[in-house]
């Protein structure tokens, strides 16, 4: 189980995340939603240990992650929001590097890398430097790197970004399958339809604060709205999107 | 037929597009990837210009003392300074041309960004060409900013009438501009010919090697080039063959021809300068023109990326292997790191060849000249290889991608320190020692084998010293210029160790004369290396974290008395 307790992150006097608390359980898919700049990726980076929180605690399986950071990293797979990779390496070189850094068994890692590259459809480009990869291909490499050591905690920050329709469907199904196999899955996405369909429960963040943390069904009843999109619009969107779109069209037409 | 108003509009449009593109290409002449991850190109160009201007200023110091006498400087002195300014200008132009190697032709990005825009190919071609010439010529101009007005005053004294300065000044500028242009033409011609003759994929693979070689060649030839400063030396029959390969002297001849101060020994050189200028210009323009219009359609159709060669080597533990392979691939594939390393290799070759050929480097008479060269050059080579590698690994490849090292750190920080040590030994010391095995052909086996052992131990000690406070992963920590003063340390150590080098080589040569001496020396060095290794490992064990972000030491330290 992953638990966040009153996580706060401040840069100088600017508060990015304030008192974020929620629980993600094994076998469940937790959707993490919020508009751009709401603090989703910051929270994800705090969970992975890439950023230190200003206050609060992250617990995994009941223990603060600082107690055994290396053990925690062994059990975590993470796909960041932006596909930042060492693009001078080829896909297979990068995955081999990650496998060795994770201290995986060479024979097993070789087999898994080969399998993952084949299943994601990038085996043919395995020897090409990633600087020539499309965003979708880089995303597939990141997904492979995050999953190849069979982690018990899967953190996916915008995992559908850049993926084609076919791979998105595979990933959607994969996320469900991972949860069925008892893994803790936390994923953030702007694709509300996908989140609504696969998430066991959702956490909605707005201006760094949790404004909703419940199952989609409960939120629908509570908010008396038919869809997650409506709930999200009411809780986290302040702008009048129809008016803004008209203004943009007027501006370019003038 | 277009009406005059439309023609005017079209011209205005052309110049506007030309100006915009020229500015973009000029700032991209120094590739961002080459010099800094997030560098500001205009600031960078400004820094380059200020360095050259300062050099020019210092070079102009002797001018007032020379012109106050109102006497013409002796011919050898005049030749020496003319040669110095022309050769330095050429080297600067050549270096900028080599650094902007990949900006010579439009790349895939140019084509994809500019292709959909209504920009004629001719505008693109002309603006690119103008930018390519502007950067080296501006650098050459910056170097001559003060010298180019001061030294013609010296060269004009005693030449023709008292108005000779009116001739010498423009002639000087014309000559240095022609010399700089010749270098740019040569760089472009080499690239253009290779691009036209080779299949694109092979050209892309070779291009990186050619750039590194060109950089080494320019630096070494600048520092190691012979000097012929007297009319007799320029006239000597035995020097004629080598003068055919020294373009700076051709332009000395050209300068004197245009200045009206021609001496007979300079006639063939001036002739050669005109020929070289014409041929290089024709070759470069033809090659570039052909490359442009032949390559442009292919750039979009064919990938710029060459598939990597699959390789798997083991360097000890899996962590050592991964760090060493990552370092090796970064050096081989990152232009930025390759250029820095090439710069040090070029300087290294210069220092080694320059030093071993001086009288200072002669050891005791009992040691043969070939052994002397071998001993001195190998000590210098090990030193330069390790220190240059240490400088290169401090420059990050992609800071934003470093998260993977942080997110996958499942082993203690001290093991990463050990892995970096293995990478320095494998990529810095081992190749040099392997190359030094060539010594088996010039000296007896025991002497060379003993020396190789000593060099390996020296390399080990240098690696330990280099990693003493290094708590990072190679190429994966942000770089804070000036914090470690590594470049300063490099030059200081190099200059300081020159004096010791001869003594060290002398002592080694004596010791290698006997087996017992060698064993004793080996044991001493091995003990010292082991002690350094132990000390460095203990230091590493005390640090719990790997550093990914270099932080500046605060200029004001708070005593926190109010907290």
List the helices and strands and how they pair.
The complex is a heterodimer of chains A (254) and B (563).
Chain A: E1 2-11, E2 14-24, E3 29-33, H1 40-48, E4 55-60, E5 63-64, H2 69-74, E6 76-79, H3 91-101, H4 106-119, H5 135-147, E7 153-157, H6 165-180, E8 184-188, H7 192-198, E9 201-206, E10 209-214, H8 216-223, H9 228-236, H10 241-253
Parallel strand pairs in A: 3-8, 3-9, 6-7, 7-8
Antiparallel strand pairs in A: 1-2, 1-4, 4-5, 9-10
Helix pairs in contact in A: 3-4, 3-5
Chain B: H1 4-29, H2 32-35, H3 41-59, H4 63-67, H5 75-99, H6 108-114, H7 121-143, H8 147-156, H9 164-197, H10 200-224, H11 231-235, H12 240-243, H13 247-259, H14 267-301, H15 318-333, H16 335-356, H17 369-393, H18 403-407, H19 413-436, H20 445-466, H21 486-511, H22 515-542
Helix pairs in contact in B: 1-7, 3-7, 5-7, 5-8, 5-9, 5-10, 5-13, 7-9, 8-9, 9-10, 9-13, 9-14, 10-16, 13-14, 15-16, 15-19, 16-17, 17-19, 17-20, 17-21, 19-20, 19-22, 20-22
Question: Could you explain how this protein is built, in words?
Answer:
The complex is a heterodimer of chains A (254) and B (563). In chain A, the strands form two sheets. Chain A has a six-stranded mixed sheet, sandwiched between helices. In chain A, strands 2-1-4-5 form a four-stranded antiparallel sheet, covered by helices on one side. By secondary structure, chain A is of the alpha/beta class. Helix content of chain A is 42%, strand content 24%. In chain A, helix 3 (91-101) runs antiparallel to helix 4 (106-119) and helix 3 runs parallel beside helix 5 (135-147). In chain B, 72% of the residues lie in helices and 0% in strands. Chain B has helices at residues 4-29, 32-35, 41-59, 63-67, 75-99, 108-114, 121-143, 147-156, 164-197, 200-224, 231-235, 240-243, 247-259, 267-301, 318-333, 335-356, 369-393, 403-407, 413-436, 445-466, 486-511, 515-542. Chain B is built from 22 helices and no strands. At the A-B interface, helix 2 and helix 3 of A face helix 15 and helix 18 of B.
């Amino acid at each position: 189980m992953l638990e966040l307790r009153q996580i706060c992150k401040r840069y100088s006097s600017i508060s990015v995340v304030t008192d974020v608390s929620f629980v993600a359980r094994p076998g469940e898919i937790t959707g993490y939603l919020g508009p751009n700049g709401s603090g989703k990726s910051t929270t994800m980076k705090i969970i992975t240990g890439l950023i230190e929180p200003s206050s609060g605690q992250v617990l995994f399986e009941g223990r603060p992650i600082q107690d055994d950071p290396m053990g925690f990293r062994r059990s975590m797979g993470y796909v960041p929001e932006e596909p930042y990779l060492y693009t001078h390496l080829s896909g297979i070189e990068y995955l081999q590097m990650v496998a060795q850094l994770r201290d995986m068994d060479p024979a097993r890692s070789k087999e898994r890398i080969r399998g993952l590259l084949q299943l994601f459809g990038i085996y043919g480009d395995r020897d090409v430097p990633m600087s020539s990869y499309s965003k979708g291909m880089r995303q597939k490499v990141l997904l492979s790197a995050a999953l190849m050591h069979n982690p018990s905690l899967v953190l996916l920050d915008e995992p559908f970004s850049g993926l084609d329709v076919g791979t998105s469907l595979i990933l959607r199904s994969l996320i469900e399958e991972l949860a069925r196999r008892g893994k803790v899955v936390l994923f953030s996405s702007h694709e509300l339809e996908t989140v609504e369909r696969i998430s066991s429960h959702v956490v909605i963040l707005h201006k760094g604060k949790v404004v909703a943390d419940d199952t989609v069904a409960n939120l629908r009843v509570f908010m008396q709205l038919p869809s997650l999109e409506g709930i999200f619009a009411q809780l986290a969107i302040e702008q009048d999107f129809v008016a803004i779109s008209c203004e943009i069209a007027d501006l370019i037409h003038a | 037929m277009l009406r005059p108003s439309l023609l005017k509009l079209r011209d205005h449009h052309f110049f506007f597009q030309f100006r915009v593109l020229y500015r973009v290409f000029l700032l991209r002449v120094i590739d961002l990837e080459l010099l800094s991850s997030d560098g500001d190109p205009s600031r960078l160009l400004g820094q380059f210009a200020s360095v050259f201007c300062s050099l020019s200023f210092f070079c102009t110091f002797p001018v007032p003392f020379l012109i106050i006498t109102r006497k013409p400087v002796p011919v050898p002195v005049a030749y020496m300074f003319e040669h110095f300014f022309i050769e330095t200008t050429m080297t600067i132009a050549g270096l900028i041309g080599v650094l902007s190697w990949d900006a010579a032709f439009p790349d895939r990005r140019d084509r994809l960004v500019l292709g959909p825009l209504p920009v004629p190919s001719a505008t693109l071609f002309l603006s690119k060409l103008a930018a390519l010439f502007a950067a080296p010529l501006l650098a050459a101009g910056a170097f001559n900013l003060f010298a180019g007005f001061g030294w013609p005053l010296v060269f004009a004294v005693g030449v023709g009438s008292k108005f000779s300065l009116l001739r010498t000044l423009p002639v000087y500028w014309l000559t240095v501009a022609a010399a700089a242009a010749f270098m740019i033409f040569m760089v472009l011609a080499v690239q253009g010919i290779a691009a036209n003759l080779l299949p694109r994929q092979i050209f892309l693979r070779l291009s990186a090697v050619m750039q590194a070689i060109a950089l080494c060649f320019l630096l070494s030839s600048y520092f190691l080039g012979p000097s012929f400063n007297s009319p007799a030396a320029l006239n000597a029959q035995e020097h004629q063959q080598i003068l055919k390969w020294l373009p700076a002297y051709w332009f000395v001849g050209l300068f004197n021809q245009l200045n009206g101060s021609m001496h007979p020994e300079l006639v063939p050189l001036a002739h050669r300068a005109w020929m070289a200028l014409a041929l290089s210009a024709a070759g470069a323009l033809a090659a570039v023109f052909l490359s442009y219009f032949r390559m442009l359609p292919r750039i979009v159709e064919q990938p710029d990326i060459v598939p990597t060669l699959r390789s798997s080597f083991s360097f000890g533990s899996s962590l050592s292997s991964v760090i060493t392979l990552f370092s090796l691939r970064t050096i081989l594939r990152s232009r930025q790191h390759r250029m820095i390393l090439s710069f040090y290799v070029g300087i290294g070759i210069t220092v080694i060849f320059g030093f071993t050929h001086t009288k200072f480097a002669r050891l005791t008479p009992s040691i043969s000249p070939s052994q002397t060269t071998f001993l001195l050059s190998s000590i210098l080579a090990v030193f330069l290889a390790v220190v240059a590698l240490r400088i290169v690994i401090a420059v990050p490849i992609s800071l934003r991608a470093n998260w993977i090292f942080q997110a996958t750190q499942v082993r203690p920080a001290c093991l990463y320190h050990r892995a970096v040590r293995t990478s320095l030994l494998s990529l810095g010391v081992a190749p040099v020692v392997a190359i030094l095995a060539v010594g088996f052909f010039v000296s007896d086996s025991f002497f060379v084998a003993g020396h190789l052992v000593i060099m390996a131990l020296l390399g080990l000690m240098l690696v330990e010293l280099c990693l003493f406070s290094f708590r990072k992963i190679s190429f994966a920590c942000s770089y804070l210029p000036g914090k470690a003063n590594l470049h300063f340390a490099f030059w200081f150590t190099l200059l300081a160790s020159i004096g010791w080098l001869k003594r060290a080589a002398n002592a080694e040569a004596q010791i290698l004369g006997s087996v017992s001496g060698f064993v004793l020396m080996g044991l001493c060095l091995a003990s010292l290396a082991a002690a350094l290794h132990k000390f460095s490992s203990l230091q590493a064990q005390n640090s719990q974290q790997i550093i990914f972000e270099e932080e500046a030491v605060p200029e004001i330290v708070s005593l926190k008395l109010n907290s």
